[in-house]
Amino acid sequence: MYDIVIIGAGTAGMSAAIYAQRGGKKSLMLEKLTYGGQIINTPDIENYPGLMHVSGFDFAGKLFEQASQLGASYEAASVLGIEDKGDVKVVHTDNGDYQAGAVIIAAGAKNRPLAAEGTPLFDKEKSLTGRGVSYCATCDGMFYRNKVTAVVGGGNTALDDAVFLADICQKVYVIHRRDQFRGSRTTLDKLKEKPNVEFILNSEVTDLLTDEQAQTLDRVETCDKVTGQKRQIPVNGLFVAVGQAPCNQPFADVVDLDEKGYIIAGEDTHTRTAGIFAAGDCRTKTLRQLSTAAADGAQAATEAIRYLNT
Prior knowledge:
310 residues; alpha/beta; 5-stranded parallel β-sheet
């Protein structure tokens, strides 16, 4: 029996564990993969307050060490669901059941890849992640200062990424499979005013080509869906912004999900079920960054402690 079970050991989950332990509560982190979440793929973090340069791997390691030294427990398990029994919540996993007075869901979200899993393009994308392929312009954009980049996508994230990159990169290509964008018209108009931005519309990325010596991304192949014409574009970096996929379906019985699958929870991290909270990328929010994940974890733990002490 734990006071708080935390589902997920990314930045939000580990921050929640730190605050839970400091609040005098016995906490358990459950993670099906390894602790750290998406941030472990970031080679250099430059935008976290107080840390000039740190690798995502080192950052996650220090966070885990801090939580562990405070007494937080950790188990490798895939969560199958949550059963609400009032004052007791039962978390069902492939490694048995765990009971707690409160649960914090910090399951995160996965970036959607360009291609379907199991395809050659998917394998190339995976192998080049961190070596030319990125999913976060605000995280990794500065690595491509004065270089050539491309953004794939047509929503707000893609347009915002392109605006950000256009201010620091030599040239930015915006690749979209349609000729119309789903993102903000205001942002699109701003992007069209940038002299170093080129739009490649009605096109899909069909291949990623590498520099044979450095084994980093060198060119992106696109195919025009109307004409069938293929084009190879020399780029240093490719930013994939085709959406995220939250991992919240196992919790649909105890929380409300929006149309995209994110847990409906405000800045206080409360869900519709008393004693169950949501923190980090898995919940509805406008900004998903390292600092906001840490803030969510702190808030969720504080709210869980308040709930338990009531």
